[in-house]
Design brief:
By secondary structure, this protein is mostly helical. The chain has two domains: 172 residues, no CATH class; 112 residues, no CATH class. The chain has 14 helices and four strands. The strands form two sheets. A two-stranded antiparallel ribbon has the order 1-2. It has a two-stranded antiparallel ribbon with strand order 3-4. The C terminus is likely disordered.
Amino acid sequence: MAWPRWRHTLNEAKRLAVKAIDEYNCSTGHYGDFIGTMVRAWLYLLQAEFQRDKIDYRYKDHEGNPTLIDGEPKLWDALRSAKERFPATSDPVRTNLELFIALRNKVEHRCEHALRAAAGGRAHALVINFEQELVAKFGAGHSLADRLRFPLFVESITAPERKDTVKAARALRAAQTVLAKFDAGLDSAVLDDQRYDFRLRLVPMLGPKSEADAAIEFVKLDELTDDERKVMIEAGRSGTVITKVKKVPVLSAGCMLPKRVVSEVQKRVPFDFNVALHTRLWKHFKLHPARWVTPDSGETVSEFCIPDEPTRQYVYTPAWIDKIVREIGTPDKFEAFFGAPPRKGKVTPIEAAPSRQEQVKVAGSEKAVS
């Protein structure tokens, strides 16, 4: 019985993935070839899914007819396929693939080596995501694990001296700039996700070898007990000891009080922004009760505001700053929201009501003048 079409496409995806990994691990391999081949592998993997699931992945015109090129229907490219498979814009797998689709046309020979070093963790994630998608959609029988080997390498503890230090530094800066521009628009949750950037540390294993030993073993340090962690550190006693800083959750980490919110918003808008305006905004969107009673005395919009019991105040998240800028970040939006145009300087056309003490003081002054 002949294989269905999707099976042929899947086999080609697997062949390209192995070829790309071989290119990456080869001492004379080219990073640009790795990127191009790996992106094609992803494209064929997603097309195999579409074919098996009977999803029409042809581009259509405004009338719903397939777009033709030289008489053949134009198929979704890698970027469109990724968006269809991973619709969430914050999906780390999609974001990682989008990075390498963008890099495919930007890799230059002069910064190829530097980009390979700077984006190494992202390349690992690209391959691991491919393997996980492959197994998740088509079963463990299609895994590439039995075809790949951990590469042998020679690596010194300190970087070797380079005669072309200035040239190498320029190439590294160019590579880092490319990645920094892409990372600038990403959420911190995506940046910290291993599906976007996968990094490891290798520790030599000493002592007698058992039959169960493998060439490489993945260990999550955060999941080890204190005694196990000590053993892992001791395992590297003849070489460099590598430790991992464990992040401890901090209450209300990253949140801000109103004055800090005002300061951050002020950096992003072309007009004056003050506490009075901020107060009107949080009241309009009903972020929290008007005054503190107990942490559960009223509902809060947790995406933008969190009750902080030790200080008995409401603190605001970075997402609240983003929302403020979206809502009133331009003069037109400001006027549409508040009903009056903004002005530069310390005074805005919308001020908070004067306090009782100010009213008494003003009344006393007027009486004295009369």
